[in-house]
Design goal:
The structure is a homodimer of 312-residue chains. Chain A is α/β, with parallel strands linked by helices. Chain A has two domains: 120 residues, 2-Layer Sandwich (Nucleotidyltransferase, domain 5); 171 residues, 2-Layer Sandwich (Nucleotidyltransferase, domain 5). Chain A has a five-stranded mixed sheet with strand order 3-2-1-4-8, sandwiched between helices. In chain A, strands 11-10-9-12-13 form a five-stranded mixed sheet, with helices on both faces. In chain A, helix 5 runs antiparallel to helix 7. The first copy, chain A, is globular and about 65 Å long. The model of chain A has no long low-confidence stretch (mean pLDDT 94). At the A-B interface, helix 7 of A face helix 7 of B.
């Protein structure tokens, strides 16, 4: 039985899974931490692949979702978060030389979009926006059933849209990007600052917060926490209204840890989209939903990529 | 010799041209004003088509570029500017019933993008952003050699991105859109307000200005006019940096009357893009240029659409 080996190289863990070529049910999954144990990262990765390798000659292709900027055409990891020294690593070439099967590589947010489109919340939609709201904000776009990659494969950076010129500093060095206003750390930082200004809240006023803390306090009706989610939803809605004008998509899928705040984030987000679209025609048939595949989205997207490419 | 009849229905004039199916040189072009002369608009249009019709049985298809929101899939003009009463006109169906050939319809800014990609400044590029800066700001996007249409065909509204929340009112009813900051009327209005505040300029302080006036004064080194173009270029650059993050395109083509301000607008625009991209990788191989086809872009795009569809 021919199989694909699919890898998801995340910031904290690497997963490897075997899938029969026509199936979405893995026959084997192995996880290891991303951080090294003295063995060079490429060796750890090839050891992991060898470990899940089902039997000689049984693997038709390898698919990889990886965090960080990468070149999906050449198969080069430009920079891998949490893997010291992984700069411009020709991963595709390395794995093809080692294992003698075709290797396909994609950015993890793009792969999550592809996974949700093929196997998750976006099934049946041809025009899809996937946005992951977590430590950062990333995304992926499906246009006419195709993943949007762009000239060099860097497309879909949905968190790096200027929402407030001269606003708070973004991790990328620019100001006022959506990521600097509505990511998990941005939500927590805003709440911390409000606490420092003396706003009453059940949140602890000393120590650092997380968006999860804010989410829990909001569930208990804490006004400051509710305001923090409402503010993030407001900015997310401005960005998503822009994206609907640009892409005229039929579904928006929200992933990442912050999306688990659920209704208390998504309701103000929806209100903000409705307030900001230039015509209700851009919004009134649009589905807004959370991701269905959770942590598996990137893996399932790399599977979808591999099935599409290797199956040609 | 089989021919296509191509129409461009603009706000002020309607053009009809005949092209041999494999050619981009028209054998005949006829123009009429868009505004009626007592004859119903659909009748004027069919009369125009009949007038350019080369000979019985010689027409393989009709292609139409039209201003205003429309449904390119169903071929319905949702609202035509300057044609009173043209609301939800099933133009495709009407023309197919009357002329018994396939009819293809596209939004004029989208068609201009397609025209520049196939026959103009964007030849050879696979990922293209076309932005027209005129009375309004519109656009069209080519992704992987395909025109981006979206679920209902409304994609590519590049002027309706929020750049300044709570900024000046846009024609669409929202605030702070790019169109409200950098279109021709927005540039002129800003200059008028500066004049009212007493800023010295060679521009006349009474009466209303146009962006063309501002452009001429800028060419003569007028500081207020230069500042007006620089400000517009700044906002355009913020929007275009966003679009490069989203699309990772290899070329940006600027069309419309305001783009004729040339260097004095485009230099600050380029500076602003460079200042606002999250990584220079998004910008350092990107061509920024003005449209090559001028007023013919929409017509040539409708030709490209018709060639692609009818030639299948």
């Amino acid at each position: 039985m021919a199989q694909y080996i699919i890898l998801d190289i995340g910031g904290t863990q690497i997963r490897a899974a075997c899938f029969p070529t026509e199936s979405q049910i893995p026959t084997k999954v192995v996880r290891i931490p991303t951080q090294g144990d003295g063995i060079p990262p490429l060796d750890r990765l090839t050891n992991l692949i060898a470990e899940v390798w089902p039997s000689p000659d049984a693997v038709a292709a390898i698919g990889v979702a990886a965090a960080g900027p990468l070149d999906p055409y050449a198969g080069i990891v430009i920079e891998a978060p949490n893997i010291p020294g992984w700069i411009n690593v020709p991963l595709k070439q390395h794995l093809e030389n080692r294992f003698h099967v075709p290797v396909y590589l994609g950015n993890d947010a793009n792969m999550a979009a592809l996974g949700e489109w093929k196997y998750g919340a976006g099934r049946g939609h041809h025009h899809l926006i996937y946005m992951t709201i977590s430590t950062g904000i990333g995304g992926g776009i499906i246009v006419d059933d195709q993943l949007l990659l762009g000239a060099r494969g860097f497309a879909g950076e949905l968190g790096h849209i200027t929402i407030l010129p001269d606003g708070p500093l973004c991790g990328c060095g620019q100001r006022g990007h959506l990521e600097a206003l509505a990511s998990g750390p941005a939500i927590a930082l805003w709440a911390e600052n409000e606490l420092k200004c003396g706003v009453a809240s059940i949140l602890p006023s000393s120590g650092s917060l997380t968006a999860k803390d804010v989410g829990h306090a909001a569930e208990q009706g804490d006004p400051l926490a509710l305001a923090a989610l409402s503010r993030a939803g407001h900015f997310l809605g401005i960005a998503l209204a822009n994206y609907l004008h640009i892409f005229n998509s039929s579904i928006i899928i929200l992933g990442g840890g912050v999306s688990k705040c659920g209704y208390l984030l998504i309701q103000p987000l929806k209100t903000s989209i409705a307030e900001h679209v230039l015509s209700i025609d851009y919004f009134n048939e649009v589905t807004i939903t959370t991701a269905a595949l959770g942590d598996d989205a990137g893996l399932m997207g790399a599977l979808a990529l591999t099935q599409a490419r290797a199956g040609r």
